[in-house]
Design a protein that fits this description.
By secondary structure, the chain is mostly helical. It is about 75% helix and about 0% strand. Helix 1 packs antiparallel against helix 2, helix 3 packs antiparallel against helix 5 (about 110-115) and helix 5 (about 110-115) runs parallel beside helix 7. The longest helix is centred in the last third of the chain and has 29 residues, at about 125-150.
Length: about 190
Amino acid sequence: MLVLATLGWLIAAITMTALWAWQARGRHGETVTIWPAVVSALALLYAILGDGEWARRSAIAWMVGSWGARLAVQGIYTRSIHPADDTGRARPFWFFQALAVGAVVASLPFLLASLNRDPDLSVVELAACGLWVVGFAGETTADRQRLRFTSNPANQGLSCRTGLWRRSRYADRIFEALIWVAYATFGLTAMWL
């Protein structure tokens, strides 16, 4: 476990160092889209190199991989529609290394799950997968609704109040929280089996 966690930290630290060097050249907007991709890459690494049950490793790789890919693609697409001003203040090196440490800490449930050798998925893990499906579908829907709303020039400067956004100003965050509860439940179950 320690070897995989160390390898994960090394990959995250190198990636964030490269990103720091890139933004030091005047590119600031990509930091938000890269972090989910780093977390997903760590989950995939753990799923590939872990010695736990294949079904569990596969489940965590699919859940986290699709989450990170969706957020990265959405971030790139959103920036292509609404370009951000890249003339902002550059962030210091320690900020990127803190993101690297955060990625490793956030990926710990995936590491635990990838090392779980129990041959059967528990009821709790299956419930966590179901919760993840609800969270992923809800967040994807909320983000698409907001993107559709903000893409209309008539809505410039207005808050999205259609679809799920009519119910809550934080629709995407609520579903993102469900996703992370599902990850934590799935990964921490490995400690008790």
